Amino acid sequence: MNFLNDIGVQLDEVTCLAIAELLQSPSMGEFTREEWKRGMAGARCDTIPLITEHAKKLRERIPREPELFRRVYRYTFPLSRMQGQRNLQFEIAADQWNLFFTPDHGGVAWNTETTPWLDWWIEFLEGRGKKPVNKDLWEQVEVFMRKSLEDEEMKWWSPDGAWPGALDDFVAYVQAKRGKGSEMEVE
C-alpha cells in the first residue's frame, strides 16, 4: 500500500491492475523479487520518480489503447480469482467491471447515448442469481463492450455467433428493455 501511495496510484483504479500486470503479480498485492526486477527493467523504471511517471503514462494510455486495456483486463481474471478457484466470484467480477468500464476509475465508459450498458449488464447478472464468471465470459464481455460502443443497435450481433450463453441472453434482455423484443434485426 505504501508503494502505491508513493507512486500516486489508488487501489480503486485500473492503473493499479496495470502495475500488477507489469510486475506479473501472482496474486493481489504480491510481487516476487524476480518479476519485480523484470517488470521494472522492461519499463525502464528504477526509481520512485520514474515509476510514478510510468504510472501516469499508463493512466493516460489505458482508456485510449485497446490492446493495453485488453492485456490488463485479461490479466485481472487470474489475479482476482480466489485461490484454488477456476471462476471469479460474481461480486469480484462486478467490482472489476465497475473499474474497467467507467472513466472515473481509469477505464472506458461502457454506455452509449441510449444504453447504460454496464448498469444493465450488472442488473442482468444479478437477476440471474449472481453466478460465478468463467474465463470465457470474462474475456468476451470486453469484446462485447467494444462492439456495443461501436454500434449500440447491435447490427453486428448474430444469435448463431460463438458468444457465451450469458451474452446471448443479455442481448435479449437489452432488446426487451428497449421495447424491441424479437423484432430487432440481427444478422
Describe this entry's structure for a reader.
With 187 residues, the protein is mainly alpha-helical. The chain is 56% helix and 0% strand. Helix 2 (14-22) crosses helix 5. It is elongated and about 55 Å long.
Number of strands: 0
Helix content: 55-70%
> Any low-confidence stretches, pLDDT <50, length ≥5?
182-187
What is the molecular shape? elongated
N-end to C-end Cα span: 49 Å
Tell me about the biggest sheet? none
Can you give keywords for this protein?
single chain, 187 residues, mainly alpha, 0% strand, elongated, ubiquitin-like protein binding, cullin family protein binding, DCN1-like_PONY
Summarize the helices and strands and which ones pair or pack.
Elements: H1 2-6, H2 14-22, H3 33-42, H4 48-61, H5 66-80, H6 90-100, H7 117-127, H8 135-150, H9 165-178
Helix pairs in contact: 2-4, 2-5, 5-6, 5-8, 7-9
Quick overview:
It comes from Penicillium olsonii. With 187 residues, the chain is mainly α. The chain has helices at 2-6, 14-22, 33-42, 48-61, 66-80, 90-100, 117-127, 135-150, 165-178.
